[in-house]
Amino acid sequence: MYYSHFGLNQAPFKITPNTEFFFAGGNRGPVLEALLYAVTHGEGIVKVTGEVGSGKTMLCHMLQARLPAHIESVYIANPSVSPEEILRAIAFELQISAAREAPRLEVMQLIQEFLLKRYAAGKRVVVFVEESQSMPLATLEEIRLLSNLETSNDKLMQIVLFGQPELDENLRQPHIRQLRERITHSFRLEPLNPGEIHEYLMFRLRAAGYHGPDIFSPAVVKHIARASQGLSRRVNLIADKALLVAFSENTHTIRTRHIDAAVRDSEFSQQRPRRIEHHYG
Q: Which of 53, 88, 106, 164 could link 231 by a cystine bridge, Cβ 3.0 to 4.6 Å?
């Protein structure tokens, strides 16, 4: 497609989470380092929230890639399951043999025995739960019970919840208060501002092999920022389509009309903008 036209050796704006394209700006780098610290020091339950397309999955993959060798990870991508099913899913990922008809308490006991053996061998286990805003409240409570598994000094299992802002709404429910109080670290991925979007665009182009001059003018970046609402997935979609339009016109200069064409060709252009609240700290 447009790769050779812009001197690229791979796609710069794919929406799949390739860790080679992790952008440490927009506070993503500091959040990753803080997550690594929390996980490696057994700091209870950790929560990461952000809008759809803000980079949570990329952050999760980066965290998995950066874990030290003594920490083993379990990845749960579809948490919309019952309490019994979440235990079975975790047991399956840990390669624990549990009879299909085994009661919940038996599965919990098998997980505890496995974790104690791993702990004795100097190993730790962390469970990453994506899309956790979709997790039923009863299943969230089961997650809390898993976080209770511990020795006299350390937690046997670390849990990191990744979710959309609705997760915070779920955790405000009175009957889930015990879980909320177990969350020791809470991070929020904010939308990228125009300056960060400009850095992001050029970082991804360079990572894909681009060596030419800056092709995104301030006016173009402002256009992208407005259309994307600062969400990296949308930035990727717009930039990819805009480069394709520029290629079709045999130009290396990205214009605002290229951005307009890219946005018109995107599904989210028909969505009503969602109010984004900013949280600090």
A: 53
For the chain, the domains span 4-16+192-269, 28-189
Q: Which residues on adjacent β-strands are paired with residue 124?
A: 71
Cβ–Cβ < 8 Å for 8, 210:
yes
| Contact predicate 61/199, CB 8 Å | no
Q: Per-residue pLDDT tens for 90-118?
A: 999 999 988 888 898 999 999 999 999 99
Q: In what order do the strands lie in the sheet with 45-50?
A: 71-76, 124-129, 157-163, 45-50, 183-189
| Separation between Cα atoms, residue 140 and residue 173, nearest integer Å | 12
Structure tokens at 71: 């920490």
pLDDT number for residue 79: 76
Strands 157-163 and 45-50: parallel
**Under 8 Å between Cβ of 7 and 212:** yes
Cα separation, 66 vs 48, in Å, equals: 17
- The architecture (CATH level 2) of 4-16+192-269 comes to Orthogonal Bundle (1.10)
Query: Element (H or E) spanning 8, and its range?
Result: none
**pTM for the complete prediction?**
0.89
Tokens 């949308």, residue located = 234
Between 94 and 274, whose confidence is greater? 94
The CATH homologous superfamily to which domain 28-189 belongs is P-loop containing nucleotide triphosphate hydrolases (3.40.50.300)
The mean per-residue pLDDT over the stretch 31-57 comes to 93
Q: How far apart are CA 201 and CA 81, in angstroms?
A: 37
210 contacts 7 by C-beta, under 8 angstroms = yes
- Kindly provide the residue ranges of all beta strands, DSSP E only, lying in the chain, ordered along the sequence: 45-50, 71-76, 124-129, 157-163, 183-189
